[in-house]
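Journal club prep, shared notes

We agreed each person brings one worked example of a sequence with its structure written out as tokens. Mine is Dihydropyrimidine dehydrogenase. I'm keeping it raw so we can talk through how to read the token line rather than staring at a rendered picture. Sequence first:
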Amino acid sequence: MAADRMLRFVEREQSYPDKRSAEDRAQDFREIAERYAAPDADAQAARCSQCGVPYCSVHCPLHNHIPDWLRLTAEGRLREAYELSNATSTMPEICGRICPQDRLCEGNCVIEFSGHGAVTIGSVEKYITDTAWAEGWVEPLHVRAATGQSVGIIGAGPAGLTAAEYLRAEGHEVHVYDRHDRAGGLLTYGIPGFKLEKDVVMRRIERLEQGGIHFHLGFDVGSEATLDALRQKHDAILVATGVYKAREINVAGNGADGVIAALDYLIASNRKGFGDAVPAFDDGSLDAKGKHVVVIGGGDTAMDCVRTAVRQGAKSVKCLYRRDRENMPGSQREVSNAEEEGVEFVWLSAPESFTADKKVKEVAVAGMRLGAPDASGRRSPEVDPGRKFDLPADMVIKALGFDPEELPHLFGAPDLSVTRWGTLRVDHQTMMTSLPGVFAAGDIVRGASLVVWGIRDGRDVSEQMSKWLKAKAKSEKKAA
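Then the structure, token by token:
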């Protein structure tokens, strides 16, 4: 019986795909883990307990049908597993690579609670869709009859691309505007290749282009065209810009040469990977080679920076974080990967100042300790007066998170309402902003978050926009 293939978590140990050695992977930007071989993927999928209440699905922002496609994988019905995985996600192989499964699906796996180790959901998800691409099962975008309506999407990141796919499938003409010269947003320029190789992103974008979605790249809304001009051109607009304004740290020496923003650093590295000319990398400003590098922050962006610096040949790489390991926001797996690659974590520490001549040369560090919990439930860091020390630094990378840009000003749209945090204010039922026909989704609404939430928001907003467009078409038909 097919059911006999499942519930093998007692007799089969948890096994992730083999990682390349730390020494080997530190030499390049290839992904660090190999793909499962088919028997291994089947065996790991068969560990699923098929529990009555699948907490893995509940804690997945997309509510993927995880137990169902694990069962199909275990049964060797891989094409069906792919089709079910693809039914709820526009980018399953990307989520399989970069989602923090330890905080989402795998972290809430029932057999993890029983002490047997979670099902390796992300690795199986990656395996399923990579196989689908290799076998030619990934079909072109199926587009319904043309509606005669046009949609403009500002931002080609996960939320924008997901909404573009669903809206194009409905038969709308879809135009995507992005300031960068390649689509993908942080998938393309923010996340390093060792977590997400770029051909994985590019093939998704090519599929959308082949489906008739129009990409306007190097297009800066505000200077190339105001938001109002785009509203005149399209029946509906989606703002899915993400949040790109780096948070600053207010300490002496912050403006010194060699003190740089994380995103500038990661974009330069990714551009080099594409083979682009990057003067600020070539002159050494954004290249960590031979330098003592200090990264400030404890999120996934900080992990991307420290691991990139290792690959660029830094002399030493240290990560300062003001809380301890248990209270950091980044993925614990990423911390472990970084430690394996030679990164040193300096927990409970924060910069007091940066010492520089012409360039930064040292970080004065204050020790921290954890006090009472803050509003997020995490214990607040406070200065420990008994600990102070200095660290040598030729490059300091600030990875403190991101805030929204001032979109009403940038877009020439003063009536576009924002919250006190600068995110766009929307009706949370319709996902429409204060401007009729202008919707918003992703990080520009919820603040800096995960790629999987961007995909979820893109899926949700496309449904709301479709409803609104149908009502608009009906109204115009009546008026005619």
